[in-house]
Specification:
Shape: globular
Structural class: alpha+beta
Pfam families: Acetyltransf_3
Number of strands: 8
Distance between the termini: 48 Å
Keywords: Acyltransferase, Transferase
Helix content: 25-40%
InterPro entries: Acyl_CoA_acyltransferase, GNAT_dom, N-acetyltransferase
Low-confidence stretches: 5-20
Radius of gyration: 17 Å
Mean pLDDT: 88
Largest sheet: 8 strands, mixed
CATH class: Alpha Beta
Organism: Cytobacillus spartinae
Protein name: GNAT family N-acetyltransferase
Length: about 190
């Protein structure tokens, strides 16, 4: 193989890697696998006390690279994870949306967090719809659940708008409180 052939092969591999990292596009958003370079922007949502006030508090900044890496590995293993949410117009990561997996991809937890500048623009709903479509196309997901802090009324509205059914209150160890619990069967 000559130099030109090698360059074409390398370019094809790079393009395939980029495509594999892109999960789904919506009108305004792209969901993709998290990369190590997303560490700095992740501080704007997971590392922000105001954003995470209803989610057990901000993640310590030095832990964020480990979190991002674990989500990338989860996607490699299961084909599902929590994804970076990119605003197409700006090309900036504005949040995260996707699924926490406990033991198998049959039952997954939907989560979403966004930088404050993107609140109130419908991005959480749009990203959540995209995530539900990913789950439907995955082939193994049978049930999606979600919960929210009892004071986070905006999340209740989003979940109900998406078609989740309210199941009642449930205790969550990670937040150490009872939270409204919603589910959706696929």
């Amino acid at each position: 193989m000559g130099i030109i052939g090698m360059v074409k092969l390398i370019n094809r591999i790079e393009i395939e890697e980029i495509i594999m990292k892109m999960i789904i596009d919506t009108d305004r958003l792209r969901l993709r696998v998290f990369e190590a370079e997303d560490f700095h922007v992740a501080k704007g949502f997971w590392g922000n006390d105001e954003v995470m006030v209803y989610s057990g508090g901000a993640v310590e900044h030095d832990l964020l690279p480990v979190v991002l890496d674990s989500y990338a590995k989860c996607y490699e293993k299961h084909g599902l994870s929590i994804f970076a949410v990119v605003e197409k117009e700006s090309g900036n990561v504005i949040g995260a949306a996707g699924f926490k997996l406990k033991s198998s991809p049959e039952t997954v937890e939907l989560i979403y967090h966004f930088i404050q500048e993107s609140w109130g623009k419908g991005y959480a709903t749009e990203a959540a719809i995209a995530c539900i479509n990913v789950a439907k196309n995955h082939g193994q997901v049978k049930k999606i659940f979600a919960s929210a802090d009892p004071n986070n009324e905006q999340s209740f509205k989003i979940l109900e708008k998406l078609g989740f059914d309210y199941q009642g209150l449930k205790w969550f160890e990670d937040t150490e409180q009872e939270e409204p619990y919603y589910s959706m069967n696929l």
